[in-house]
Amino acid sequence: MNPITIDHTDLQILRLLQKDAKLTNKELAHALRKGSNTMFDRVNRLKSLGIITGTVTLIDRRKFGELLIAFTHVQINMHSTKSLTEFQQQVINFTEVLECYHMTGVYDFMLKVAVRDMVSYNSFLVDKLAGLEHVGSLQSYFVINEAKRELSYPLEDLVALNA
């Protein structure tokens, strides 16, 4: 698949929207010294190309008290297309799972899991995850401190600009 090429203005729009997705077309236009209609058209184009896939509201999890964040590595016991697909389809439906990655290496999947406490994590592990048909072994890592949490992509390194 060839990467989508965008121009410098598109890159600036994406950079601004990654920092604050609630910026209006008028605010984008002002920041980039362009017309509001131009911003409207460009943002819609980026959406239609599938570059902008949605917007989210980030919540400060500390406002809800302490949460336990775990990275759980899962090894599947049978490496067939069916077992990998079934596991992935099942695990993404668990509300505790924030992210799911199919990985290379010893473990097949890495899950980012958020729960209230260790009792809740144990319940998730025993009652949900370990009970799935294709689960072989599990390894859990718990977050002690979140030193950096960046959701923006380094666009300059990832995109090809039109000349």
Architecture overview:
With about 160 residues, this protein is of the alpha+beta class. The protein has two domains: about 55 residues, Winged helix-like DNA-binding domain superfamily/Winged helix DNA-binding domain (Arc Repressor Mutant, subunit A, Orthogonal Bundle); about 80 residues, 2-Layer Sandwich (Alpha-Beta Plaits), CATH 3.30.70. About 35% of the residues lie in helices and about 20% in strands. A four-stranded antiparallel sheet has the order 3-4-2-5. It has a two-stranded parallel ribbon with strand order 1-6. Helix 2 crosses helix 3. It is elongated, with a radius of gyration of 20 Å.
Number of strands: 6
Low-confidence stretches: none
- The CATH homologous superfamily of the largest domain is termed Lrp/AsnC effector binding domain/regulation of amino acid metabolism (RAM) domain
Strand order of the largest sheet: 3-4-2-5
Proportion of beta-strand residues: 15-25%
For the sheet with most strands, the description reads: 4 strands, antiparallel
- Specify the helix fraction band: 25-40%
What structural class do you assign from the helix and strand content? alpha+beta
- What string gives the helices and strands in order? EHHHEHEEHEHE
CATH class of the largest domain: Alpha Beta
Distance between the termini: 20 Å
Q: What CATH architecture of the largest domain would you give?
A: 2-Layer Sandwich
Cα-atom radius of gyration: 20 Å
> How many alpha or pi helices?
6
Mean pLDDT: 90
